[in-house]
Design brief:
This protein has seven helices and seven strands. By secondary structure, the chain is of the alpha/beta class. Strands 5-4-3-6-7 form a five-stranded mixed sheet. The chain has a two-stranded antiparallel ribbon with strand order 1-2. It catalyses: a 1,2-diacyl-sn-glycero-3-phospho-(1D-myo-inositol-4,5-bisphosphate) + H2O = 1D-myo-inositol 1,4,5-trisphosphate + a 1,2-diacyl-sn-glycerol + H(+).
C-alpha cells in the first residue's frame, strides 16, 4: 500500500495523500479525486462534479460519515483503483456472444489467475478462500490450487517454501463450489499444482467428487471426438487440469 501511495506523491500536480507512513490518516478529497480522474485517467465524464461525487459515494465504507463533501480514505481509494469502475476494459465486450462459443475450448483466450489464493505478495502475504471468491466473481475461469500435505491427512494450500499463510484445501473447494458460476455459466478450470502424498491425493479426489458432484467433468463429453469440447458444451462444468 505504501509503495502505491509513494508513486502518487512523486507527481506534485496530482493530489496530496498526506503522510504515507500513516495511510490511515491520509485521504483523497473531492477536487483532488476529480483532477486524478481528468488528468491521469482521462475520464471526460469527470468534468461533471456531481458525477464525481456519485462515484466517490459508492466507495465510502462508512455511509454515516458526516462531511460537507465526500472524501476517500486510502483503503477506499485503493478499492476504487482495482474496481470494475476503473477498468480499461470496454464493457461492450464483457458479454460473450453465444454464437461464438461453439468452437473447441483451445480456440479461446481464457481469463486466468496465478497463485489465486494469495491476497498480496508471493513471499509473506496471507492466503484466503476469499481470494478465490473475488476472482470468480470477477469472471475468472481458470484458477490455481497449490496443494501440499497438511495435518490430519487433509491437504493445505499455500505458496510452498515461503512464509505465506496456509489455508484448508476443503475450504477452498467449498468456496469454488459456491461461487464458480455466479459471474458466468461457462466452465471453470482448476489448475492443480500438487505436492501431496498418495494418501492426501486420494483425499483431494474424494473432496472433488463429493463437493462438485455432477458439475465435475469426469468423462469425455464425446468419446469419439478428435478435438476439445466447446464452452457451450461445458457450461456449468468444473474441469481439473493436472499432470498424470
Amino acid at each position: 500500500q505504501k509503495s502505491i501511495l509513494d508513486e502518487f506523491k512523486k507527481d506534485s500536480t496530482m493530489f496530496l495523500l498526506g503522510n504515507t507512513d500513516r495511510p490511515d490518516a491520509s485521504a483523497v478529497h473531492l477536487h483532488d479525486f476529480q483532477r486524478f480522474l481528468l488528468h491521469e485517467q482521462q475520464e471526460s465524464w469527470a468534468q461533471d462534479l456531481n458525477k464525481v461525487r456519485e462515484r466517490m459515494s459508492k466507495f465510502i465504507d462508512d455511509t454515516m460519515r458526516e462531511t460537507d463533501e465526500p472524501f476517500l480514505y486510502v483503503d477506499e481509494f485503493l478499492t476504487y483503483l482495482f474496481s470494475k469502475e476503473n477498468t480499461i476494459w470496454d464493457e461492450k465486450y464483457a458479454l460473450a456472444d453465444p454464437q461464438d462459443m461453439n468452437n473447441p475450448l483451445s480456440h479461446y483466450w481464457i481469463s486466468s489467475s496465478h497463485n489465486t489464493y494469495l491476497t498480496g505478495d508471493q513471499l509473506r502475504s496471507e492466503s484466503s478462500p476469499e481470494a478465490y471468491i473475488r476472482c470468480l466473481r470477477m469472471g475468472c475461469r481458470c484458477i490455481e490450487l497449490d496443494c501440499w500435505d497438511g495435518p490430519d491427512g487433509k491437504p493445505i494450500i499455500y505458496h510452498g517454501w515461503t512464509r505465506t499463510t496456509k489455508i484448508k484445501f476443503d475450504d477452498v473447494v467449498q468456496a469454488i463450489k459456491d461461487y464458480a458460476f455466479v459471474a458466468s455459466e461457462y466452465p471453470v478450470i482448476l489448475s492443480i499444482e500438487e505436492h501431496c502424498s498418495v494418501e492426501q491425493q486420494r483425499h483431494i479426489a474424494k473432496v472433488f467428487r463429493e463437493v462438485f458432484g455432477d458439475q465435475l467433468l469426469a468423462k469425455p463429453v464425446e468419446a469419439s471426438a478428435d478435438q476439445l469440447p466447446s464452452p457451450t458444451q461445458l457450461k456449468g462444468k468444473i474441469i481439473i487440469k493436472h499432470k498424470k
